[in-house]
Please model this.
Amino acid sequence: MSDLYKSMQVSASGMRAQGTRLRIISENIANADSVAQEPGGAPYRRKMVSFGSELSRELGVEKVVVKDVLTDKS
Model:
């Protein structure tokens, strides 16, 4: 496979991961002033995205992936 194709695949994986991050950020903004649904319930907790890398054996390159979506404990 060509180097151009490999670099496009790596770039696309990074863009997908950043798209997920932006979706989580918009969710955090939309729920910033949210309170618990029932008395004594837990309020909305902000979410954070953790990135990682994953080896694509087919292409022989490392792609960016969303490793986990974590809830802030603070």
